[in-house]
Amino acid sequence: MATGIEVAGLALAILPLVVEAAKAYSSGVNTILNVTLNSRRDAKLQDFYDDFWWETDLLHRHLKGLVTDLPLLCPDCKAALESDETLTAWEQDQAVRDALSMYFGSQNELDSFTLIVGRILGLIDKLVQGKVNYLTTKEKMNTNMYTKLKDFVSDRKSGKTSSTFFERFRFFKEEKNRNACVKNLKTWNKRLSVLMKSQSKQRSQALAIESKPGPSFSEIRKLFNSLLTTIGEHWDCNCPSRHEAMVCLKAWPSAIRNGQPKELEFELLFPGKPISGSERRWLESTVLVSQTKGAFNDRVLLPKLCDVFVDTGDSSLRFLVEVNSKKALWRLRSQPKKLLFPATSPRMSLQESLSGQLLKTLKVKRVLALTFAYALIQCMGSTCSRRTLEKDSVFFYHLTVDTVDFERPYLSTRFDAVNQAHDAADMSIQHRNPRILELGILLLEIHKGRPLSTFRLSTEISNPSPNTDLSVARRVVETLEDWCSEPYKDAVRACLELPWVPAGKKADLDDEAVGSGFYDKVIKPLEGELEYLFRLKI
C-alpha cells in the first residue's frame, strides 16, 4: 500500500490535470467523438460533465488547503509541494512526513485520509486509458497503480510521452456507469470534507487555547525583585570584598507561569567561607519569597547573611522574605541538600561554553535558548534593569564529572543596589530594549555554538557597539542553515526587530502588551519547536 504521504503527493500532482480535462469536456472545448456522437451530447451528459468538474475541483481545493495548513513548514516549502510533480519531496522528505502526521494527529486519522484519497484516485484510474498505462478495475490503491499513475505524471513533465491527458481521459459510455462514477466521487469527496473539517475544528480549538492571553509574568518579576532587594539589604558586611552569589535562572513550571503565584522558592548558591586553606565551596540555599505574612513561626530573624556562610555539611540553607515586611530576612529550618555538584568539577561560564564549542547537541541548544527567553521575561524584563545575560556572568555546574547541567543556568550577582529611577535612554542605540537584543544575539550564539564577535567583518571589528552587534545579528540570522527551523529564525528576528511593538513606543516588558507580544513572538515559537522536535516541554 502507498503511504499517506505518497497518496497526498500523487493526488496533488494529478488532480490539476483531471480538473482541466473535466472542465474542457464540460465547456465543450474538446470534442467527444470517441466517447459518443455530438448529437447525443444531451442534458444528462452535460450534467455529468459539470458534476465531475465540480467534484474534482473541490477535491483539489481540499488538498491545497491541507498543504496550506501543514504545521512547521515554511511558505516556500508548501509552494514547492503543490508544484512537485516529481513527488520527490512527498516520498523522501522526513519533514513533510512529520508535518502530515502532526496535522492528522493520529495514525487512525492518517489512515482514513489514505483510504479516502486512494479510493478517489481509483476512480481517476478508471478514466485513464492507454495500451501501457491502463489499469484494471481490480487494481485499487496498490503499488502497481501508484507507480503507473506516478509514471504518467512524470513522463508528461519530462516529455517522454506526447500523449495528452485529454487523449487518455475517457468517460463511461453507459449512463449507469457515469452516474456511479459521480456518485462514488461525491461520496468520497464528502467523506474527505468531513475529515478535513474535523481536523480544522481541532486546530481551531487548539488555536483558541493558544490565543488566550499568555502569562504576564508580572507576579514572578515582583517576587524576584523582592528577593534581590531584600537580600541586598542584608548583604553588606566587614569582609575584605563583597561576596558573590549565584541565582538560578531556571524556567518555572507551566502551572506557576500560567497562574498568579503568591509565593515562590528561589534557588541560590551562597559563598561558603573556606576552612583551613581549603577552596571555597558553594552553599546550597533557597529563599522563599511570600506575599502572605505569618505563615511561618518556626523562624529566626537574621540581621546579616554573612554570619551563616559556613559549611553546612549535608544541609541546605533556607530563608524567608515576606513582601512589604520592611525587608526583614528570616532564617528557616534547614533541609537536606538536593543538588550534588562534584567538588572536583569547577563551574563553567556561558562564554567558555560558546568559545569551547561545548554546546554540541541540538536538544541542549534549544532547551538553553528557551530557558534564557524565560529568564529574561521572568527576571530582567525592564529597560531600566541593569541585570543582563552577559556571557561571563552566567554559569553552569556539573551533574557528574562529565555531565554539565545546561538546563539550570546561574546568574552571578553581588546584590549591588539597583537604581530604580529610569535612566535617560541612549537614543543613539537603534534597538529599543538592550535586554531583548542581548537575547536575540544569545539565541544566535547558542545555535551556532560560537560568539557573535566571530562573525564580524573586518570593518566591524574596530567598531564594537550595540548597533554593530544588531547589524551583524541581522546578517547572520538570514544566512542560517536550511535545517534551522523557521520558528527558531522567527524568534531571533522578533528579538532583533520587535515587530509587535508600535513605532515610537518603548519596548518595556513591564508593559503588558509588550510582554504579551514577547511571549507570542519569541517564547511560543521556541516552545513549539522544542515540543515538535523532542516531545519536550519546559
Automatic annotation (TrEMBL):
Coiled coil: none annotated. Pfam families: DUF7580 (PF24476). Keywords: Signal. Transmembrane segments: none annotated. Residues 218-531 form the DUF7580 domain. Residues 1-21 form the signal peptide. The keyword Signal applies. This is DUF7580 domain-containing protein. It comes from Tothia fuscella.
